Amino acid sequence: MDRTWNRGLCWRCEDDGVPVLWLGPVQSAEAGDGPFFCCAPCVRRLEALVSAFNRHGVVVDENRVTSMFARTYGA
User: Fold this and answer.
1) Which of 15, 49, 67, 70 has the largest count of CB atoms under 10 Å?
2) Over the chain, what is the mean pLDDT?
3) What is the DSSP letter of 57?
């Protein structure tokens, strides 16, 4: 994976003009594909979620939508 940081918009927290890292393509059911960029704090949060998933197979999250996803799909 390319680990080049560039200034831009974080697609997770929407902070603009910050160093962001391209994490890969993201797909929308309605709007097609786009590049998924995240700032350092959001990358750390995503890393924590991936780590929790790989340790336990369950992501406990206070966010109602992502918690529903975890329960529905066994994430």
Assistant:
1) 70
2) 83
3) S
Q: Which of 2, 75, 21 is nearest to 11 (CA)?
A: 21
- The span from the CA of 54 to the CA of 51, in Å, is 5
Q: Residue 62 gets which letter from DSSP?
A: S
Start-to-end C-alpha separation, the chain: 23
pLDDT at 70: 55
DSSP H helices in the chain = 40-56, 64-73
Q: What is the pTM of this model?
A: 0.69
Instruction: State the amino acid at position 16 in one-letter form.
Output: D
User: Token match 């962001």: residue?
Assistant: 20
